[in-house]
Write a structure and sequence with these properties.
The protein has 131 residues and is of the alpha+beta class. Helix content is 26%, strand content 28%.
């Protein structure tokens, strides 16, 4: 079985030693995805809704680069530094996944790698051959 590794160009991938996404067979796993811009800076400082949209857009690109579609996403884990603001993240999530409706978990964490990150998101997918 072939393993496909996907890079998003994040400055954290090489020093940490991880791929944005990995695919083995029909399973795609997307690593914790922070709200980074292409130049490695934080997108939408202070704006949880905007940061969530940025994370999901990176996840979408990774899923597609691994040969999947957003409809293949079966599980999302959303880590927030302030759970009281969950509705901002949920609104962005709903814009992408409202019809797909993967299993989704929101958790509060004490912090993320960069203090300005308000959210980090992981995703798992399963590509079905009869699409």
């Amino acid at each position: 079985m072939v393993k496909v590794k996907v890079s998003s160009g994040s400055p954290y991938e090489k020093p940490i030693g991880f791929s944005r996404a990995s695919r083995i067979g029909n399973i795609i796993a997307v690593a914790g995805t922070a709200p980074l811009t292409p130049d490695g800076t934080t997108a939408c400082p202070g704006d949880l809704y905007g940061q969530t949209k940025q994370c999901i857009s990176i996840i979408k690109a990774a899923i597609e680069d691994a040969g999947g579609r957003m409809e293949d996403v079966i599980r999302i884990r959303i880590m927030l530094t302030d759970i009281s603001r969950w509705e901002d993240a949920a609104r962005a999530h709903g814009e992408y996944f409202g019809e797909i409706r993967p299993a989704c978990t929101f958790v509060e964490v004490s912090g993320l790698v960069q203090p300005e990150w308000l959210v980090e998101i992981e995703a798992d997918g399963m590509v079905v051959d009869d699409q």
